[in-house]
Amino acid sequence: MASLAKKRRLTESSSPEEHAAAHLVLAKRGDVLLELSKDGAAAGTLLVSSIVLGLASPIFDAMFNGSFAEGQGLSAASPKKIALPDDDSTAMTLFCKIAHMQTTRLNNTLSFDTLADLAVVCDKYRCTESVRPWLQLWIHKRLANPGADKFEKLIFVAYVCDLPKEFEEVTLACLRSRTYIGEMCNITHGFDIVPLQIIDELRCKSEHAYTTLRNKLYGKDFEELLASRCSNASSALQSYLGFLSEHDVTLNNSLSLKQLSYIGRAMQDPELVGCSLKHDSCVVNKIGNMGLIACYALEEACKDLKGLCLDCFREKFLGYSSINCRLGHAASISPADSN
User: Fold this and answer.
1) InterPro entries, per this entry (predicted)?
2) What is the pLDDT at residue 3?
């Protein structure tokens, strides 16, 4: 995992104010001095306790309590210097602050890049449990703005850090509030950790939702109206299409499902005129019902939409056997089954 950080895209940097401080003392009697780097240059140091890091991470525990050179001769009088050239300095600082209970001045929100960098540190050092409550807090803070640039990086964070509830919430937010799922480089954060099937599943769910809505708006009655020989059919068709156009209803993915749902709620009962010729069983007489169906279909666009279940996804695509879904789904349920 140490070489993964080298694969990061240079454009994926965190904001300057989030960079690690030059020199931080997180443990007054610390016996390890972590030397941080950023883009190949020194980015400060962290005086930490090997015991604290060992409790927070089995990787650090093995490093400091095994036969590795880093664990030999540890002393608060002369802290052992350990360089971390491949780890993001901001993410490592965050992890160490949380592990050492130095959380008073932590920000309530983090950039998507920083959250993803922290997820990489959690994966590499297997320390997610130590920072889980903070990860959940930071993700929930960001859920309120799913249209933000790089929001889809939260998919990476929730997947890598094994957060099933947050994974479902983030993927649902992407499906409901975005007209596209997101850029692959953001969902993967430049690594090959996240299975690409996640992107495929989300795209399939999105296409299914739009197709279902499209079939309701332009379904059997609409097709019969197009084929009708009634002289009133043309005006009825124009009336129906005008009703949709008046409310800016387009299904070309320029509007999110959530936006379409808001439109449906704001629609007034349509006044669409039926057949004035009093033809028996004329499809034109269904025009009023078509308008009501359109209002209801738009309003309910997001009703049955569900995000991806992390455990069910792993069972279906990654071959995890006898997995117990932490969200309570039956073993037979898979992401594709819950559109």
Assistant:
1) SKP1/BTB/POZ_sf (IPR011333)
2) 44
